[in-house]
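Sequence only, no structure available. Ideas?
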Amino acid sequence: MVWTINYVDDITVSDNYEYVAFIRSQLDHAKFSISGKAFTYEDLKEFKIPTVYDKSSLRIPEVPLLPKYKAVYKFQPLAIVIGKDRYDTFDKAEEVEAKYEPYDGPLYEEVPDNVIYRDYKKGEVSSEKEFSLRVDFNRSSQYSMEPRVIAVKNQGDQLIIHLSTQIPTVVKMLVSEMLEIPQNRISIVVPNVGGGFGLKQDINYEELSVIALAFKLNKNLKWVETRTESILTSQARDQVHELKVGYTDSGKLNYVLDKITYNAGAHPLPFTGISPLFVTLNTMKSLYNFEFYYDAEAKVSNKPPQGAYRGFGRPEAILIMERIMDEIAKRTKISPIEVRKVNIKEKLEGDVGNLNGVIDKLYKKYEEMRRVYGKGIGISLYVQYAAPNSEIMVKHEGSLIPGYECVRARLDLDGWIVIETTLTNQGQRMDSSIRKLVSKELGYDKVKVELAKTNINGYGVWASRSMLTAGNASILAVRKLKEIAKKIDESVDWEKISRIMRQEPWKLKELSVEECYETPEFVGTVSGQIIAVMKDDLGNVKPLYNYIVADVGVTGDDEVVKGQLIGGALQAISGSFLENTEDEIEYSIATAVEAPKFEVELLHTPSNTPAGVRGVGENSISGGYASFINAINDLGLECNSVPCRLVK
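Reply:
I predicted one. Tokens follow.
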């Protein structure tokens, strides 16, 4: 078993913590019994699992933290063992025996057909040409550098939770509801998070179990997820699209009929729910003009709960649409670029940037790469919308989480402008980007950004929202702060003002402003990718060159944005031909060895927001799968599945 050593081991050595390990099911569907010293369903049955979404539309029973008698997926936690250290805990886990009796019935008696949600849109269609296409987008793991870690400490009536999470304020809200204690008794402490990619957008049942058990026993407990546990239980994607497509000889897409099966795994998670399905449906018509009819089912299955992964339903939709565009181009013998231009909507929804500028650059690069590489060229053109606002989150999706983010801007006694936000750092350096935006706005360099604050109204990192919400809120806050400062010193000399405040520090609270922001309309990033691939003598596909163009608006740091785009594109390449959770312990991801040469070109059309920024965190991964799979098909190797396994 692979262990992961991380910050929890370092910061809690002297705090008298005990370690937690889980007894996990070795079968995907079985009745079980536990013998030995372990905590089971009976010990945690009083804790109900809260969610941030409206459960009324889902046909699924309440799922407890630990199952009572039946496992519904392989590696599901069945019981908990506590030891004095990791070695002792794993030794004690080996003394616990789980006996299994395979079970062939439904996952839940209340849902005999396993369908927990259905949505459809029907209509009459006709077209001079038609074809059918099936696209399978299988599961992959978010595979962050650091798996999940948690340390829970009881200190008087306070519960202090050290947690690697993207959503500290949401965690506080969910834990408060689960334990039925006020939020002011809970502290969430977040370090620099060792990678997220959506993995830590949710809080899973293991983390909630550790919190509940620590609270009930009044013990200090910690759990460090192993890499094996992470791969086998932290998963996302998993959609099947059975398509009928109508088109014309001129390359015009008339309609798409789509039978969608969304595999939610054993049960929805508290934050994610089945929201990626809704994002997929909303993304299908983001760029092209056609009639879209669908029959979508969300089903439970004997797989781990499906969570969030960078892109969150967008890669699935963009893969479908870009495969359709290439299939039409192949059948009509019209250039893939021209087919896309023929089908673009007359007016795109929201504020997306310079569409024609992106298309022009994409066309020139496409022609160049055709001349250089010949075959094996794949293209994708797409709009990545970011930062859904409260109307979408609350009104349309029924979520308890709104779309705004608040920040606090203040002056401290040393002359620093401090920006406080609920955002956490997964390596995307949004703290640096916000600092640069604020410094530019004020013409002042002494700016620092403090992350993972839970005493501010905000909801963390997800949906490429950080700069669009917190970045814009920071600009609005420091503008107000500057107006207040003018009343103290007309020249707004921040160093001078801080010296004045040292004489009357009780007045410093006057130089503290909280401001919130959400986008009034969809803000998107129109983008394109082209990748060249080849097939080597062994039949393996090798990516050679990946071009990315995106209208990113105003940025805090161009190099950070380019890094984000390259990283997301490499994740898409990795997911397109390597990653499959069916491989379990042989699961592999792309490294620098498999990476192609990247070229990134940025356009800077300001968005209609105070800072002019756009969301880019999920951009390149959203279109990367489509360009890679299109490149495979351009080689003449038919493949409409992620991952695309050409060599067995």
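Residues 466-486 form the longest helix (21 residues).
Hope that gets you unstuck.
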